Amino acid sequence: MEKGVKEVIEEAITKTIRILSLFEMLNRGEIIKKKEAAELFDVSEKAIHRDLKEINIYYNQI
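and the corresponding structure tokens:
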């Protein structure tokens, strides 16, 4: 079944909030464990891994 525009937007907002939360945690010097973060944000460990890769790309550009 195809997702509607509303679902796509909600997923994008949720992902953005998750990535910003992970970014803030790293800036506070916290250690992020993929399993715990996945449970906290109710996503897969693979999703957390991808989020951390995106944050790493950002850090390497600044």
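(Above: one complete record from the training split.) Residues 5-27 form the longest helix (23 residues).
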